[in-house]
Design a protein that fits this description.
By secondary structure, the chain is of the alpha+beta class. The strands form four sheets. It has a six-stranded antiparallel beta barrel with strand order 8-9-12-11-10-13. It has a five-stranded mixed β-sheet with strand order 2-1-5-6-7. It has a two-stranded antiparallel sheet with strand order 3-4. Helix 1 links the parallel strand 1 and strand 2. InterPro entries: Topo_IA, Topo_IA_2, Topo_IA_cen, Topo_IA_cen_sub1, Topo_IA_cen_sub2, Topo_IA_cen_sub3, Topo_IA_core_domain, Topo_IA_DNA-bd_dom. Belongs to the type IA topoisomerase family. Keywords: DNA-binding, Isomerase, Topoisomerase.
Length: about 625
Amino acid sequence: MLLVIESPNKIKKIKSYINAQILATVGHFKDLPTDAMGVDLDTYAPTFILDKGKADRIRQIKTAAKGQDVYIATDPDREGYAIGTHVFDEVRKIARSIHRLEIHEITQKGIDEAMKKSIPWENTNSGLYDAFLGRRVGDRVVGYILSPIASNALKGRFSVGRVQAPAVRLCVEREREIRTFNPEPFYVVSITLQKDEVAFAAKHRGGNLTDKAKAEAILLAVTAARTADILKVETKETRQNPKAPFTTVDMQAAASSQLKISPEIAMRLAQQLFEAGLISYHRTDSVRIADEFIADIRNHVGRSLGPSYLPKAPNSYKSKNSQAEAHEAIRPTHMHPTGDIHGVVSKEGLGADHEKLYTLIYRRTVASQMAAAVYDSTTVEIGCAGEPFRATGRVMKFDGFLKVYSEVREGDKDDEDDNQRLPPLVTGETVEKTGQKLDEKQTKPPGRYSEATLVKALEKHGIGRPSTYASIMGTIKARNYIVVKKGKIHATDVAERLFDFLAKDHPWIIDLELTRKMESYLDKVEGGDASWVTFVKGVHSKMKFARPPQRAAAGPGGVYPPSPAQLKFGTDLAKKHDREIPKDALESSRAMSAFIDGLLGKTAPGDAGTVKAPATKKTRGRSGK
């Protein structure tokens, strides 16, 4: 029996649960060529080529597959299925049998369940591979046609992607909203009251006043008053329900806002937690948790906190995408006392950041099955010098799920007046007024996106999918379309130039609604209800079936020379930095790209002309997004 997976980091953990030979592809081992489009623009048929660096690994897999029952256990999403399809193509004629195995958690239970549900590869949903083809081929066509056009028009190096372009639009438009915003003054009149040595504040019912003279008149009137009248007191019980367990985008957003960890790093940490068998599969838009695990959570909460922290029936949540219900939310793979978190993570050889993310996932999961927090919320109508005021306050009666997990959403500010402590008040009584003030304020521009709120915005507009949010963020940062300063996103001049060009000449590529429809169409392709070729043809038609600019013929060894635009850009950049262009960069498009990247600071200082390998382990690529 041969088990084929993606990441070699899973091998040791999986081997502890199953007696099989296990080999890893290390992500995609076939892809479109790096120095050519690799797509027939008449039929849209792609040409996938073998990564030369993985040739020995694939030979090893083929040798091990001869006469064996092969279980392809690449990740349970489109990209994983695509890798699995390429494995199937390599071993279909030499293996005794080939099955699909979807591992959603690397535990004994998870492996056993996956084996029970494994099916012959021929019976799997090939729509997953078709959706991958639509995404990969469509993105390649866009990149190869529009990127050179943008670069030539803007006299620089610009990358245009089907999904990254709408993300750039969101950032540029927010940048311009902030820049052009004209603040307007407004005024807030409030009084301070006291009863039984408890001080509390009340604001004028007029709210934010735009007439300064009127605000000053109100202030003058109440200044002379010594008391205020309680006109009406209304107290009602309010409840705050827990949030659903994490989807991919919610996890990335929470990691960014609460842990200050970027979406790309959060996904890398989650990948390693998954590989260590500590969490379920981390690319998901489902909020469902298996019934058995809900029972485990309820038992844990009942034992550790008591029955009052459990709702009478399990909390249920509905996923936005009905297809997501086949999977689960991101959750721990087993329940344990909260105090054991450090030991659980460190036992797997993982570090402090892994522990922080695991703690976040653990607490959110547990809290999702706990009772609501309960408050007494009070609203008091007050009269002072003939002017109407209102005081609000909230007192927690029962902490519920907040015992385990709480968060403040970005962009929200706790209103101290709303949550202030109020003394016992009775309609008709008079209380002492101890002070008054007039605050002059200004309207504020829209808040900048953080990485957390941008990811949520991408989800809201239907841009991308759980597996691509992090790569979208990484791409627009790497292309210098955005920079992150003090946790906030700033669109660059480069992004604004690209946006203006696309808005004028290629507006379809930044059309948010069209992007959402394209993602929905790919979902139909995945379900077998639409054709990936039709999808790519539709994308190509938006560019009037254009062809990429002609490239010079390849020289000796298949090396392509730099294009005229690339050569000019590299020459201008070299002059600016007082650098001499290496000989190989004058002869090779790839070497020229590396030289330019070095001067643009995309490689380590002093390494211009060479691409520095990343320090982290290699993960499967999702280029073109």
